[in-house]
Amino acid sequence: QVQLLESGGGSVQAGGSLRLSCAASRRAFSSRALGWFRQAPGKEREFVSGINWSGGRTNYADSVKGRFTISRDNAKNTVYLQMNSLKPEDTAVYYCAADPSRSSSSWSSRYDYWGQGTQVTVSS
User: Kind of pairing, strands 10-13 and 118-123?
Assistant: First the structure.
């Protein structure tokens, strides 16, 4: 079983930056694609970004392209989400998730392990 633990959330003003981290509990992490999702109050969980098993391929939601960057360090079993130029609409609980395949997907149903989430609040 893979356990995921997010960190790095917090409160920031619009235009600011945050870096989220997600540490995994097992080495099996390195063979899996990973993703970041978010859920704002009253809204459905939505895809933010994904990265394949090697880190060589990434994808992003249109709403975060050019502002967010996903990366991973398989030696540390950790995936990151660098968030720049934050907007109030980025306010949500952010979750990392592990996909059993090597290529990432924007479909949440593909992911079988999820972290507990970390709150990101962006004020205007």
Answer: parallel
